[in-house]
Amino acid sequence: RRQAATGRRRDELGGRPRLGAVRGSGPGVGGGGAAGGPRFFSAAAAAVAMRRTARPGPPGRGRLPWTRGLRAPPPPLLLLLALLPLLLAPGAAAAPAPRPPALPPASAGPSVSLYLSEDEVRRLIGLDAELYYVRNDLISHYALSFNLLVPSETNFLHFTWHAKSKVEYKLGFQVDNFVAMDMPQVNISAQGEVPRTLSVFRVELSCTGKVDSEVMILMQLNLTVNSSKNFTVLNFKRRKMCYKNDPVHAAPTTSTRVFYISVGVCCAVIFLVAIILAVLHLHSMKRIELDDSISASSSSQGLSQPSTQTTQYLRADTPNNATPITSYPTLRIEKNDLRSVTLLEAKAKVKDIAISRERITLKDVLQEGTFGRIFHGILVDEKDPNKEKQAFVKTVKDQASEIQVTMMLTESCKLRGLHHRNLLPITHVCIEEGEKPMVILPYMNWGNLKLFLRQCKLVEANNPQAISQQDLVHMAIQIACGMSYLARREVIHKDLAARNCVIDDTLQVKITDNALSRDLFPMDYHCLGDNENRPVRWMALESLVNNEFSSASDVELG
């Protein structure tokens, strides 16, 4: 019976190896081959044997004699007994090495990697290799247990990391000697999400330079996958020698580099702006020289002449006004009494720019004094009646005296013939018989500068056109440019003030004459007993004491 059973088992198993069989040595389960020779045992044969052994039947049949009367072992035990020769065979294949521990599994696998790059390893320990702490979720405990020595001159460590899915982290540090080393700093937040792309974060290990000591540093990194309970703790150990009075060699940080780059860009922009301003200044100087040449060729009786001649300025009722200015030899001003100039003489000086009264239409009254008025007027073009221009119109009331009319015409000619972007000379006059004389100037839609500034100050809080300090400085620069041109042309204004300037909606300021200013702004003028109202509050000392006027006194007025 034993031989028959052995033959049947050999027929079932076969004497040939199967695909996937595990090779062993020594006596096998069943026959085939000499004792001690190579045998093959397949998982399929083991299953067949297990089924035959476990098949129920009459008591005492199909069992070995030594098994009669015993209960059949359970199927799992039979499977273990069937595989036991394979496990105990001397030639059996060696069991594979255990895989290192991995991060907690995610649904699709977070695939986290954290390592030191080849350059970083070469900088720290001089090897040309990458040092992985976590590689595709597999943790290297050997690398984590290594306490890496950081050179004393090294103040920064760089770690490279990335993850393919969402992995949150928390980062913390421990230092055993805060006297020798400050708390490590990183250029990332203390907690957040591991970047999905390959990134580098930096750890700063700066010594204080107070004591000599070897400092132990522990960097703890918690990686969390999916939930707060599914996390892994990584501890990185470092040690560094810190020396007393050792200067901290801090490499430039990203913010420092950005600062230096910004400073360089700003310097380059300032340099370019300076070049552009220089070019514009040269062009403006050439244009001013051209304006000067045009003005010199078109100047008439109202203009000052070169210093070799005597320039006359008419003033109101001033006795003893023949004192010449000796402090400025290039200018010689001789002051004449206004009574010596008649109305006919004043009209004769402006006859060449006189126009017909029909071309002027008076509209709103902009300013009004005791005997003078300033209108917003419309000037019709001489060649094309369909063309109109806005204008300022200065005139006098019916009760104005002949002296007051003469003063208006004479003072209006002060800037006549001058051409500059910051000057507003007269363009036309109307001196027809039976009509009050009118003086026409180009229109500036925001009007008198003093009234404009006063209005801005009173309603500054609710004024949508409030001006800034920069705007005020820009206005002052424009006035200074206009006065510089007058100084070059040897023209003395004698009454420079905001009341004698006008402004438009682009904040362009122009200096105009002082005709009718004494009447329109009486509070700005005072009489000193010589029958002449003067702006005492802003006048230079030599003008008050010696009646001397010059470009310097105009600066004092400004």
What's the short version?
With 558 residues, this protein is α+β, with helices and mostly antiparallel strands.
Q: What is the fourth-level CATH superfamily of the largest domain?
A: Phosphorylase Kinase, domain 1
**Percentage of residues in DSSP E strands:** 15-25%
- What can be said about the biggest beta sheet? 6 strands, antiparallel
CATH topology of the largest domain: Phosphorylase Kinase, domain 1
Mean pLDDT: 75
Oligomer: single chain
Order of adjacent strands in the largest pleated sheet: 5-4-3-7-11-9
Return the CATH architecture of the largest domain. Answer: 2-Layer Sandwich
Q: What is the overall shape?
A: elongated
Structural class: alpha+beta
Count of discrete alpha- or pi-helical segments spanning 4 or more residues: 13
Strand tally: 24
How far apart the termini lie comes to 138 Å
Tell me what the structure shows.
The protein is of the alpha+beta class and 558 residues long. It has 3 domains: 87 residues, no CATH class; 138 residues, Wnt, WIF domain (Immunoglobulin-like, Sandwich), CATH 2.60.40.2170; 259 residues, Phosphorylase Kinase, domain 1, CATH 3.30.200. The protein is 29% helix and 22% strand. The strands form 7 sheets. The chain has a 6-stranded antiparallel β-sheet. α2 packs antiparallel against α3. The protein is elongated, with a radius of gyration of 53 Å. About 20% of the residues have low confidence.
Features of the shown structure:
single chain; 558 residues; alpha+beta; Immunoglobulin-like; Phosphorylase Kinase, domain 1; 3 domains; six-stranded antiparallel beta sheet; five-stranded mixed beta sheet; 13 helices; 22% strand
